[in-house]
C-alpha cells in the first residue's frame, strides 16, 4: 500500500476537517447534516470523514 493510498483510506475527525477549512467543528457537523460532505458514523455515533473527499476539494480536482 502506498502513502497516497493510506491517506485516501484515512478517516478524519470533525476537528481535523475544521482545521483544514479554518472553521469551527460545529460547522463541519452542520455541513454533514446538510449533506454537503460525506460522513461515516462510528459505532459510538461520532462522525468521521474520508480524507480523499477533502483532498479533491482543496486541490480543485472534484466535479
UniProtKB/TrEMBL annotation:
Positions of the Helix-turn-helix domain: 11-59
Keywords: DNA-binding
Cross-referenced Pfam families: HTH_17 (PF12728)
InterPro entries with a match to the protein in the record: BldC-like (IPR048048), DNA-bd_dom_put_sf (IPR009061), HTH_17 (IPR041657), SinI_DNA-bd (IPR010093)
Molecular function in Gene Ontology: DNA binding
Protein name as catalogued: DNA binding domain protein
Organism of this sequence: Carbonactinospora thermoautotrophica
Amino acid at each position: 500500500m502506498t502513502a497516497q493510498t493510506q491517506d485516501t483510506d484515512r478517516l478524519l475527525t470533525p476537528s481535523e476537517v475544521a482545521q483544514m477549512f479554518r472553521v469551527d467543528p460545529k460547522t463541519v457537523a452542520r455541513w454533514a447534516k446538510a449533506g454537503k460532505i460525506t460522513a461515516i458514523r462510528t459505532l459510538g455515533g461520532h462522525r468521521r470523514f474520508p480524507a480523499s473527499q477533502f483532498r479533491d476539494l482543496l486541490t480543485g480536482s472534484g466535479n
